[in-house]
Amino acid sequence: MKSRLALVAGIAAAALTLSGCTAGGPEENKLTSSSEEPTESASEPPAEQIELSFLTFETPNLTPEYWDDAIARVSEKVPGVKIKKLVGENTATYLQQLFQSGQAPDMMMSISPNGFAQKGQLAEWTPEELAAAGVPGNKEGAIDGKVYALSKDLQPTPLVYYNKTMFKEAGIDGAPKTYAEFLAASEKLKAAGFNALEIGGGGEDTWVVTFPLNAVVSSDILVDTPDWFTKRETGEVKFSDPDFVAAAKKVVDLKTKGYFDPDGMTRSYADVEQAFLAGKAAMYPMGSWFSAAADATPPDSEVGVFGWPSDTHGNVVPVVAGGNMMVNAAAKDVALAKEWAVAFTFDKENLDNGLLTDGLMYSMADYVLPEGAGPVFDQGYEAYTSARDAGKVVPAWGNTSGDGSLPPGFNDKMAPAIVDLLNGKLSPADFGAYLDTQYDALAIN
């Protein structure tokens, strides 16, 4: 039995809850429902059952069967509840639309509480409830000191996955440890006839294009200023400031120098993942959930993992911390919804399946990793722990929540703007100014 303690809770107050583009991102654009799951107890069911709705999202990793099995298993542990599964997008904008249209679910996950808690739309988790759930003192995603989400998991977002065979053929000896080495490796790959980077974002999956900017902003800005988000909220910093504009320019330069797969930005999330596995490019910045796909269907060439390198800080790993199970303050039965949410969040089989199918890492100190985690996951885990021990773990840009986090709807404006940035329709300075305009328009007052 492979036995390791999982990640220690509270890695950094700044590493906050998942939002926007999580666990592979949204695959559905319309709310659908299913009440056919075998969610009732195998024993004699209670005389009365309360139906509670649970908003899920589907990805290549998180299939309908994944959700159905998890819902059925947990519902057997909580008498008196029947779950109506809803399938939609895991974005703040989408949840906002559901609340506005009167279709908000009783429970939801992997969405930032920011913008909803302030309106009284979410039930607060009390310190006593958090302690009973095994997460005493948990403040990830807190709004004004109050917790609205059960946080449990960690996802480095992004790590850089790389094709070791291509690196060897291009004469690159190991993963780059500085940004200068990263650029040199990209140039060697190009000279050897390889695309250096697989960057996607075609069709409705524009969120996939955010990862290079996520990585550069995290490694160049957030290492030194982890409270950048709070400072933006108070107006102390702006997207149009020179450091942010310089980060945007670094991403543009990667494309201008010809390091991107020229077909990548036309590909959907699922297609860009397969393109990397098929050897269309040597490096692929993506969330830790990609390890599950790489380990499930190993490509011909061995895959390695490293944290995005910075100019002066070495390899940096942006981390989304959360899991983020939330309960509607107007749920049909808030107490029962909380009971089910706790059972779902900390069910051991759910935790194990999340690790094996979606590359999740956990913040509970007593969690033991299951058998079956593959070599790509293990390398990602090592990249994370190395960065953590070196003090190089930072919040994942674009995926924070809690006080100072990006307002609901901002990522939906930012992703297509990044496409315009990379295609030359926006200069880095214009890009920064545009983000300031959108942030101010969407800011929570």
Helix and strand topology:
Elements: E1 32-34, E2 50-56, H1 64-75, E3 81-87, H2 92-100, E4 107-108, H3 127-133, E5 153-156, E6 159-163, H4 164-169, H5 179-191, H6 211-222, H7 228-234, H8 242-256, H9 269-277, E7 283-286, H10 290-296, E8 303-306, E9 308-309, E10 315-322, E11 326-327, H11 334-346, H12 348-358, E12 361-362, H13 375-389, E13 393-395, H14 410-422, H15 428-442
Parallel strand pairs: 2-3, 2-4, 10-13
Antiparallel strand pairs: 1-3, 4-11, 5-10, 5-12, 6-7, 6-8, 9-10
Helix pairs in contact: 6-8, 8-15, 10-12, 10-13, 14-15
Summarize the model shown.
The protein has 445 residues and is of the alpha+beta class. The chain has helices at 64-75, 92-100, 127-133, 164-169, 179-191, 211-222, 228-234, 242-256, 269-277, 290-296, 334-346, 348-358, 375-389, 410-422, 428-442, and strands at 32-34, 50-56, 81-87, 107-108, 153-156, 159-163, 283-286, 303-306, 308-309, 315-322, 326-327, 361-362, 393-395. The strands form three sheets. A five-stranded mixed β-sheet has the order 1-3-2-4-11, covered by helices on one side. Strands 5, 9, 10, 12 and 13 form a five-stranded mixed β-sheet that branches. A three-stranded antiparallel β-sheet has the order 7-6-8.
